[in-house]
Design a protein that fits this description.
The protein is an alpha/beta fold. It has helices at 8-13, 20-28, 35-42, 46-60, 68-75, 77-92, 103-124, 129-137, 141-149, 151-158, 164-175, 179-189, 194-202, 217-235, 244-247, 251-259, 264-284, 326-339, 350-360, 376-384, 403-411, 424-469, 480-497, 511-518, 520-537, 561-576, 605-621; strands spanning 318-322, 343-347, 364-368, 393-398, 416-419, 501-508, 543-548, 551-557, 579-582, 585-588, 591-597, 627-631, 634-637. The protein folds into 4 domains: 1-91, no CATH class; 93-298, Hypothetical protein af1432, CATH 1.10.3210.10; 318-442, Response regulator (Rossmann fold, 3-Layer(aba) Sandwich); 480-637, Reverse transcriptase/Diguanylate cyclase domain (Alpha-Beta Plaits). 57% of the residues lie in helices and 11% in strands. A 6-stranded mixed β-sheet has the order 7-8-6-11-12-13, sandwiched between helices. A 5-stranded parallel β-sheet has the order 2-1-3-4-5, with helices on both faces. A two-stranded antiparallel sheet has the order 9-10. Helix 4 (46-60) runs antiparallel to helix 22 (424-469), helix 13 packs across helix 14 (217-235) and helix 25 crosses helix 26. It is elongated and about 105 Å long.
């Protein structure tokens, strides 16, 4: 069963982006939306703003980004859209009502899948890394969807341990849809392209990528399958794995590394990076996830001892040698790898070295000046044009020591030089200087990440406070303050795009009687149920607010007055047909509604609210349980 369109009833129950994330998704579909438009939307969400600044500054490698506009420009509008989508879903659904569902393990696996996918794609150039990060992180969102939409029914499915294939079968038998179909349908709803959806549908199935026909989708499905298998191993609470090296025994990962010529050292480095980033994101998103510290108890790749001492395999410098003379190359390899123990690769020319550096990511490059194909100066210039290469320490080997030659070398970006023939003591002294540079750089990166993380956590706290101030404590829906803000934005958008806008003012009929008959606790319960009922009956794009007391308010964009009146009548009937149980008594509640539409030429917000209240007043005086309409200065009943 492959689902392309979800029913409105199911959509209302599923996890979905809210607030600024919805606005960003909608804006990104408009070709006229620019960086300034997106930056203005993001500025309304402090937590998202903080995370974007953090990512942009991490990508900037020393060049500080201080504004949201700069962050959007550096990361790209598509990456920003994907980040907003992930952030919004995680923020709302870190836990839930489906008791057997493993929320902690689910989000742990999702983070590892996303970050490992990012590392694999970056190493192999399979696609756009940011987009594939989002695809991997949300690839199993259908499981969360089933737990959210059908908490009790899905709990019954999860009571028995099942294999992947058995779970899919049982989900479809019990709920009419399995989580892979639901994941693909939800991601399609959020705008992810079809090749990625094909990968999502197949990633839990061994050799599932072999059945994919869409161009470019099979390699992505292969990488997604690898990310899934490694994430399950890393997040398994009964796993005996103790280091990232143990994860490298995953057969799917080994096959992938062989297919794309990823070296063991590069593979271990990307695994460590994925786990490190997963832990960092879990802190910023305040997610309760599996502790990966046991997997990462060894030093991170690149931790550096004194280069003159023997290095253990866990504390190596990554050094790349570019030297066309095989005798000199062998001599350097002997000194640096066999006797000292650093992680080392070598190349016979600059072009070969540059290709190796893209995956090996060396901390130090020792290069000869004169080489065929690409010489040492051109290699250095190419490195400095790449963001990751700007911080590689370059030691140039040369027979020239004239002032003009040295000026040329340093202008190309060389950090230090050593004249031939090579003196072993002189090389050791140069490596000590390079080692101190690497240490200071990595210390700066760690300190900067801590500062940015602190700022992001503060922004997240501010956002939660802001959300609390914009939410009605009793009903959990937006309050009057939030409604006023949404209404102002809706009016601005209506004027800008010349589209209609309706508002519906709602009052619960005879609410005082409920309080007098059943007490204020029962009255509060009635208001909660009415708020939920209105949200369920309203359109997805409508905003339902509690205006105060027993009054509610709906902002309905892109709808005419006549359609707004029909929608109000539908809401009235929906509420009238509901039965609320208060103190073991079945109580029917009705509402009165007033509808007004924005006049794009003359009406402002205050006048719009006055007309909606006048229409509501007419409905109440017309016998209640009615819909009043304000049109051209006159009020009539529907």
């Amino acid at each position: 069963m492959t689902v392309s369109i979800l029913s409105p009833e199911l959509l209302r129950k599923l996890p979905s982006p809210h607030g600024v994330a919805i606005a960003i998704l909608q804006a990104s579909q408009n070709e006229s939306t620019g960086i300034n438009d997106l930056a203005d939307l993001i500025a309304n969400d402090p937590a998202l703003s903080g995370r974007l600044l953090q990512l942009a500054n991490a990508a900037a490698l020393g060049h500080r980004v201080v504004s949201i506009k700069q962050a959007v420009a550096r990361l790209g509008m598509n990456a920003v859209k994907n980040l907003a989508l992930c952030f919004s879903i995680v923020d709302q659904h870190s836990g839930g009502r489906c008791v057997p569902f493993p929320y902690k393990i689910f989000w742990s696996e999702s983070l590892v899948m996303g970050h490992l996918m990012f590392e694999l794609v970056t190493a192999t150039n399979l696609g756009v890394a940011d987009e594939l990060f989002t695809c991997a992180m949300l690839a199993r969102i259908g499981r969360l969807g089933l737990a959210t939409a059908f908490p009790e029914e899905y709990a019954a499915v999860l009571t028995t341990p099942l294999s992947d294939a058995q779970l899919l079968t049982q989900e479809e038998v019990s709920l009419g849809i399995h989580h892979l179909d639901l994941s693909a349908a939800m991601l399609r709803q959020w705008g992810l392209p079809e090749p990625l959806l094909e990968a999502v549908l197949q990633h839990e199935l061994p050799q599932g990528d072999q059945s994919i026909s869409l161009p470019g989708a099979a390699p992505i499905a292969h990488a997604l399958r690898v990310a899934y298998c490694v994430a399950r191993l890393a997040c398994n609470p009964t796993s005996t794995s103790s280091t990232t090296a143990d994860l490298m025994n995953c057969q799917e990962l080994l096959d992938f590394a062989e297919a794309y010529a990823i070296s063991p050292s590069a593979l271990e480095s990307l695994l460590h990076n994925a786990l490190t980033q997963s832990m960092a994101w879990s802190g910023i998103l305040q997610l309760n996830v599996v502790d990966f510290s046991m997997l990462m108890h060894r030093s991170a790749p690149g931790a550096t001892p004194d280069p003159g001492q023997n290095a253990s395999s866990s504390t190596q410098l990554r050094i790349l040698i570019a030297e066309d003379d095989p005798i000199v190359r062998t001599l350097l390899e002997t000194w640096l790898k066999v006797e000292v123990g650093h992680s080392l690769l070598s190349a016979a020319n600059g072009a070969e070295a540059l290709e190796l550096a893209n995956s090996f990511l060396p901390q130090i490059i020792i290069t000869d000046w004169r080489m065929p194909v690409m010489n040492g100066l051109d290699l250095c210039r190419e490195l400095r044009h790449r963001e990751w290469g700007q911080n590689v320490y370059v030691l140039m080997l040369t027979a020239a020591d004239g002032d003009d030659d040295l000026v040329q070398a340093f202008d190309a970006g060389v950090d230090d030089y050593l004249t031939k023939p090579i003196n072993r003591k002189a090389l050791g002294a140069r490596l000590k200087a390079a080692w101190r540079h690497v240490q200071m750089r990595e210390t700066w990166v760690r300190d900067n990440q801590r500062l940015v993380r602190t700022g992001a956590e503060l922004a997240l706290s501010n956002r939660r406070f802001q959300l609390a101030s914009m939410t009605d404590a009793l009903t959990g829906i937006p309050n009057r303050r939030a409604g006023q803000s949404v209404l102002a934005q809706a009016i601005s958008s209506a004027h800008r795009y010349r589209v209609p806008l309706c508002v519906i003012s709602i009052d619960v009929d005879h609410f005082k009687t409920i309080n007098d008959s059943f007490g204020h606790v029962a009255g509060d319960e009635a208001l909660q149920l009415i708020g939920q009922t209105l949200q369920l009956a309203a359109r997805k794009e409508d905003t339902v607010c509690r205006w105060g007391g027993e009054e509610f308010f709906i902002i309905a964009p892109n709808i005419s007055l006549s359609d707004g009146a029909i929608a109000a009548e539908r809401l009235r009937k929906f509420v009238e047909n509901q039965t609320i149980t208060l103190e073991n008594a079945n109580v029917s509640i009705t509402i009165s509604l007033g509808v007004a539409c924005l006049d794009l030429e003359s009406k402002n917000k205050d006048q719009l609210l006055i007309e909606a209240d006048q229409a509501l007043y007419a409905a109440k005086h017309g016998g209640r349980n009615r819909v009043g309409i304000s049109e051209l200065g006159e009020v009539r009943l529907f």
